[in-house]
Amino acid sequence: MQTENKPNFASDYLEGAHPAILQRLAETNTEQTSGYGTDEHCERARNLIRKAADCPNAAVHFLVGGTQTNAAVIDAFLRPYEGVIAADTGHIAVHEAGAIEAGGHKVLTLAGEAGKLSAETLKRYLHDFYADENRAHAVQPGMVYISQPTECGTLYSKKELSDITALCREYALAFYIDGARLAYALSSPKNDVTLSDLAAVSDAFYIGGTKCGALFGEAIVIPDKNRLPHFITTIKQHGALLAKGRLLGIQFETLFEDDLYFRIGSNAIRAADKIRSFLDTHGFRQYFASPTNQIFIVLKNEDYALLSEKIGLSFWEKADEAHTVARIATSWATTDEQVERLLKALSEHSPCGKS
Amino acid sequence: MQTENKPNFASDYLEGAHPAILQRLAETNTEQTSGYGTDEHCERARNLIRKAADCPNAAVHFLVGGTQTNAAVIDAFLRPYEGVIAADTGHIAVHEAGAIEAGGHKVLTLAGEAGKLSAETLKRYLHDFYADENRAHAVQPGMVYISQPTECGTLYSKKELSDITALCREYALAFYIDGARLAYALSSPKNDVTLSDLAAVSDAFYIGGTKCGALFGEAIVIPDKNRLPHFITTIKQHGALLAKGRLLGIQFETLFEDDLYFRIGSNAIRAADKIRSFLDTHGFRQYFASPTNQIFIVLKNEDYALLSEKIGLSFWEKADEAHTVARIATSWATTDEQVERLLKALSEHSPCGKS
Amino acid sequence: MQTENKPNFASDYLEGAHPAILQRLAETNTEQTSGYGTDEHCERARNLIRKAADCPNAAVHFLVGGTQTNAAVIDAFLRPYEGVIAADTGHIAVHEAGAIEAGGHKVLTLAGEAGKLSAETLKRYLHDFYADENRAHAVQPGMVYISQPTECGTLYSKKELSDITALCREYALAFYIDGARLAYALSSPKNDVTLSDLAAVSDAFYIGGTKCGALFGEAIVIPDKNRLPHFITTIKQHGALLAKGRLLGIQFETLFEDDLYFRIGSNAIRAADKIRSFLDTHGFRQYFASPTNQIFIVLKNEDYALLSEKIGLSFWEKADEAHTVARIATSWATTDEQVERLLKALSEHSPCGKS
Amino acid sequence: MQTENKPNFASDYLEGAHPAILQRLAETNTEQTSGYGTDEHCERARNLIRKAADCPNAAVHFLVGGTQTNAAVIDAFLRPYEGVIAADTGHIAVHEAGAIEAGGHKVLTLAGEAGKLSAETLKRYLHDFYADENRAHAVQPGMVYISQPTECGTLYSKKELSDITALCREYALAFYIDGARLAYALSSPKNDVTLSDLAAVSDAFYIGGTKCGALFGEAIVIPDKNRLPHFITTIKQHGALLAKGRLLGIQFETLFEDDLYFRIGSNAIRAADKIRSFLDTHGFRQYFASPTNQIFIVLKNEDYALLSEKIGLSFWEKADEAHTVARIATSWATTDEQVERLLKALSEHSPCGKS
């Protein structure tokens, strides 16, 4: 339900779209274009992304949402006897209603730390798997899936990604990076991973639009354009080929002209950093050390209830019987006034103490 | 590729959206709403549709595109051992890249006539199937799928639909109607089937937005709201649950206020009727007797080539070695000027003769 | 139900197994062997088959039944966006309860003639498919499936197979041959296709055991052993990896020592030829010109009913309102006495006339 | 590979079948019967099982192996949006090569204890699931799967099963019990769960043949015969409908006449108890407290290597860097002489100490 009368930090997809996108949609509305991504807007957007990620030979495809993107990419890379490795908090493992399994593939979950899958954990799993005499009776690992930033708002460093890449190459696994909130990674001062790095370390990644200022849309980048033959047919089979593909082209054109995508990220990070600074100063406990647009705070259950009356928050999980983890998400649309109202509301609740 | 310098009749989804929709999206852009269709715009759109179709107990769900809609609905109704019956020209049988089979279900095709599946054909199939001693080794029929209007632009009458419904009830089959272009059926003077009739005869149907003036979007109507438990999870599993569900709610709100959906259809039909009148007068052969927004004309191959230089047309199929069937589609966006230019271009080509 | 008091020609899998197989199972019963096909009997059977088919580098896998064999092989060869081409009478298209679709793949049916898919039909389909601008929205052809002998008892000649192979290579399609009744092809005097030829023309074929004298079992031959990596895991995933794999090894060892497989075929063909000769002499109409162990006769409905009281027959289909097509199948187990009783029963019914 | 020169305790499916089964197959070999389980042997076996489990209205189906049985049953019970709950050691979660996911369903693993899923663990999961506001975006629980005995040889008590049943009924979950080694549960002196109890507490269970004296075969019991309409078609679609179904009927007829199934279990338990007694006396550590035919001993790595030269054992897992868990399985076929040789070999290795 709508929550107009209080600032809402429940997620980063509460509003429509960045105004520049709406304006461009209006300007191009009467153009007649061919469908399914064959139009000139899509072509231009593809080139802007290839340039931004410094991968001129990449295939770039535009889909509407994250779950369909993950399902289509994973389906396209894996053979039927293969599964996809993910952290146990990975979006595909938890919140996609079994979309990967519906495509016939097991999600092989490994224990993550604050949402991150470490190269060591991965290495141990792979070592054990290939040491198992009965492994032919088990799902074969075929891909590693991670999110940047993770579902917990944390970031992989360039070194951490390279270590995973090395393992993937050693074991012939595809490496796929879910960038649903990528703008908020790219704009974080703690981040050392560029679009170009993502193209260098992975077999595929996607640049999220839905949660980063677009009405909707995700741009899949496959650095080696020959890697997935007939991917269009796979996309269509997944019901994920938008008839008016231009809508995606126009949006990503807008996002990647004039660095709008990065400016969108910066606004969210500036707001989040301001909130984090306040939390640190006032002794609030943060559940994950996130440097991006998501902040996870631990509140007494009663404080969580009271705060929720003033501010839209997202329930994350119970920290223990008496405490709740709440998520605060900033976005391209977060205003200074909203942040002030949040900080004011927070200041009315005693912190539960640093961990 | 774009074809800006000539009028384009290649399809009915060449432009963006009806201006009223864009305007509403702009007006609501800064509202903060909850996601996944739980917002007030969706709720209001659902009620408008329930009222328009006179089915107050219907469940109404909004999805982005036709293929994902068909796949999700069929998956939700069928059991694993069941298949869906369709005319051999049915969209699910031909142009959805195997989306239904990817969900594990066979499309059981029967011979259609100008895109229509007749009750007699269906009855004969069902009789033979249940007379077959080995039927336990075959896919069990579980649903009948038709399109209104059909892929050939033709219409089922109310009587024809009722006859199919009677068979479906006799054989315990679900009956599902694909309304990708429903506005163009509802506005055709030859049509005698209302939204309310569709709700009465079927177990589910969808009201197409993508091809009828929306940016995108299809509204599934399930007259008995308890028929498909957990359908939201099925939609999510299909990657078809739009995060910013409000975008669909806002569009269908706009379409079903002030009868916009019907006015959109009327514009297309008026243009198509004008073209059909010209074709009849000038001796052009129409491949199907379509009373909706799609017109299929038979042209000599060389005429087809020449005409295509002046007007955007869609190749349908070869009528024979020397003749091509071309599709002309009008839409909510078709202007008088575009029609005039089409007729002028047509008049420069001698007709291939009435059939 | 059992039909002990009358000779039964309803199918070729009415009895247990050739006595030599039962004897070998008894002799080896107390051996302790490793499971899942890793035992010495399987290894020996693989080598016997490699030798018989003159393909020393083949991978050979043993599965229990035909449907699971077809599903596993097709699943292993195809990518998700691909379908398998078959004649409309193909077993996978009709009598496998949608097993191929359950694996996510469409069966692309083409019109066959007496069960055979011709190279011309295939060529036309492929030509048209690749000429279609919208083919990216359709299931991509990935494999050709045929049966030798066909479900109608007919045979492909070596030339016919080579023509299909040429098309498959031109269009990069896998070519797979279902040999559920292969013994009855190999032993037919009209046959010019050897096991070695099958290995040369196809990417995979299977040697049927269930219908050819084994208790159960089908031997998949993949001439290029590197073609299907991790195929064991695919077999396991399909629930088709027999724990006591030795049972399959022992049976195929027995079948391919001393040419037992060919002798089994010969017995069935000799019996079928005797029946065919009688039918020709007495003016019975045969529905398909089958030179193998299946005979399809057209009978007046009342004659079919009367004959069925004396002889076990299989209903095939209605030829027209007044006539029934019945199938007579001989096998390794058919005795002279059974044939005599069949001919006696047939002679009591006036033929319906040659076609 | 075969291991003829040393006693093999690596599994319980190393030999062919109990001699009574082979004899019956030989005696019935020339009978002509109809296929796919419609013969009189299957009908008689079904009735014997209905009587043994005291469930006269049960549907009973015979399949070849465990993986296909699990996949078919789970597929038949679940809706596409549902998953199956299992202990993390459950066979379907680990050793079936993703067969359940290939059918589109997630295996929802919960932490087990020595292979057992407790009602408390289940209750906590279900409570948390239904308390989660975002549960519509997650796979819905639809079934509980357990094994009796478990993969670790442990047993559920009647009380433990009833507690799970109560939760299943409360949450509308199907309850399915995998009885691959059921004979060894039924014959254990520690067991208080009868076949009749299994029929009372579950929605389906299967009586394992492959690991309990049959050549192959598992008998699915569905206490309410109307629960799974068209299950034969589901079985066929899974490639799991044996053409010569009689082979399964004959085997289960033999197993359930004269209590052969129970005598088979008793032999294995007697041998296992003798080994356990020796292990206890000599200070060997058992990894799980199994009262059935599987024994898990912890050995120093070097002792494991030496012992493996004399006795066939199965590697289970590493207990730690220095110790290996080995599995000893007895069966219907285990002889006193084999046990003596095992004990002699064990006595030559110092135990690693009780835990």
TrEMBL record, chains A, B, C, D:
Key words of the record: Lyase, Pyridoxal phosphate
Is the Lipoprotein keyword given for this protein?
no
Q: Does the keyword section mention Lyase?
A: yes
Name the coenzymes or cofactors required: pyridoxal 5'-phosphate
Example GO molecular function: lyase activity
Using the record's annotation, list all stretches that form the Aromatic amino acid beta-eliminating lyase/threonine aldolase domain.
9-249
Superkingdom as given in the UniProt entry? Bacteria
Tell me the GO BP annotations in alphabetical order. Answer: amino acid metabolic process
Q: Which family does it belong to?
A: Belongs to the threonine aldolase family.
Name-wise, this protein is: Beta-eliminating lyase
The organism is Treponema socranskii subsp. socranskii VPI DR56BR1116 = ATCC 35536
